[in-house]
Specification:
Layout: E1 2-6, H1 10-21, E2 25-29, E3 45-46, H2 59-68, E4 74-76, H3 82-93, H4 97-125, E5 136-140, H5 143-158, E6 164-166, H6 168-174, E7 187-191, E8 195-196, H7 199-213, E9 216-218, E10 223-229, E11 232-238, E12 241-243, E13 247-250, H8 256-261, E14 270-280, E15 292-295, E16 300-305, E17 308-317, H9 326-339, E18 352-358, E19 365-367, E20 376-380, H10 386-402
């Protein structure tokens, strides 16, 4: 079958890889270059076993600090956009124990599928993407936060995740570069099987593989609209003309919701803006982390990718602007200096900002929509776990295309 994939981020490229592996004729369309949206500068962690939904009952107690503190990692900038307010209300409604547990269950299953598919791809393609599997530590500075994390760990452990709660001494023994943080660590969750990789390099490598397979790429190509006739997508209208296929997959990230609304489909997706810096590890070897680290208090993740350190964080509910705000970059720089002093001269920060496409529950939307065209599949709403879940959701799209209803 001829399949057109809209979007060349990691989700779109993983989808194209899965579909081309199944023998489909694939075309990928993107307004920019592969990975140039939310994928290229993401946190680089592949969190297959540690899932902490943003919509958690604990959010209620944190709301005053999160909303009012000038140093809060979560910022809300109200827009004249009813979809922002609707998303916020749905998010708060999802902040309960039952929803969080269901989200954890579903994300861990999808993450398992993704790990298997990513590992299978890497065993064949051997992409140069600074991949590592050195594990992850999530550190907590308060006993209350650590207790909550241990409850989440027990839930995940019951679902098959291999994790352990460790004290400050064990944490520093696992990652000596955290020695300067010893006094502020109340505890940590250690997940030895977690991985990291450079998502932009992964996107670039996948594009090379797909081009060699004969996949067609239409880059720097604006998508104007989907042409629908008799309940099916007949073509994609682009700046380079009409593109026809038998089936279409929308993997447009944060841009999916506005595009879907032109079809009468309302996706519960809104962008959460995130930031990152990428610095060279030019300090002493002992100052740089080997294990990926998430600082829960600062809401910042640190991932080693080759000779560089990716530092990512922040969540701004602020519309669709991708402008880089320098105070947020300064905050990431300060976090790096505080947590891993001396690991880098921090002369080149390579600042980045991107829009994470988030649903209120953090569960991605994969498959057909009841009100959408019958030959259009959605693969959107992965939030901060796009890299982690991309290959699992791609596999589900492939299976849906093979289903008898298609």
């Amino acid at each position: 079958m001829r399949v057109c994939v809209l979007g060349a981020g990691i989700v779109g490229l993983a989808t194209a890889y899965a579909l081309s592996s199944a023998g489909h004729e694939v075309t990928v369309i993107d307004q920019g270059l592969p990975g140039s949206g939310a994928s290229g500068g993401n946190g680089s962690q592949l969190s297959y076993s540690y899932v902490q939904p943003l919509a958690d009952p604990g959010i209620w107690a944190q709301l005053p600090k999160l909303l009012l503190s000038p140093t809060s990692p979560l910022k809300i900038k109200p827009q004249l956009d009813p979809y922002q307010w609707l998303w916020g209300l749905r998010f708060l409604a999802a902040c309960n124990a039952a929803t969080s547990r269901q989200t954890t269950t579903e994300l861990l299953q999808l993450a398992l599928e993704s790990r298997q598919a990513f590992d299978a791809m890497m065993s064949v393609e051997c992409l140069d993407c600074d991949f590592s599997n050195t594990g992850k530590l999530v550190i907590f500075s308060s006993a209350a936060a650590f207790d909550s994390a241990r409850r989440q760990m027990l839930l995940q452990r019951a679902m098959g995740s291999a994790q352990e709660a460790v004290d400050a001494d064990r944490c520093v023994a696992l990652e000596p570069a955290l020695q300067h943080q010893h006094q502020r660590i109340a505890g940590a969750i250690y997940t030895p099987g977690e991985c990291a990789a450079d998502c932009q390099k992964t996107c670039d490598g996948l594009m090379s593989v797909l081009l060699a397979r004969g996949v067609q790429f239409l880059l720097h190509t604006a998508i104007d609209r989907l042409v629908v006739r008799r309940g099916s997508v007949a073509a994609v209208s682009t700046s380079k003309g009409l593109i026809e296929a038998d089936h279409y997959v929308m993997a447009l990230g944060a841009a999916a919701a506005p595009m879907a609304r032109t079809l009468g489909v309302h996706l519960p997706i809104y962008p959460l803006k995130g930031y990152s810096i990428t610095v060279e590890l030019d300090g002493p070897a002992t100052a740089a982390p080997r294990i990926s680290v998430t600082d829960s208090d600062r809401k910042v993740v640190f991932a080693r990718i080759g000779s560089r350190l990716r530092v990512a964080g922040m969540a701004e509910l602020a519309g669709y602007s991708t402008a880089i705000e320098m105070p947020q970059i300064a905050s990431l720089k300060a976090s790096t200096q505080a947590v891993f002093p001396g690991c880098s001269a921090l002369t080149q920060l390579n600042a980045w900002a991107g829009l994470r496409p988030v649903t209120p529950t953090a569960r991605p939307i994969i498959g057909r929509h009841a009100k959408g065209p019958d030959n259009l599949l959605f693969n959107v709403g992965h939030g901060a776990l796009g890299f982690t879940l991309a290959f699992g959701s791609a596999g589900r799209i492939k299976r849906l295309l093979l289903a008898p209803s298609f």
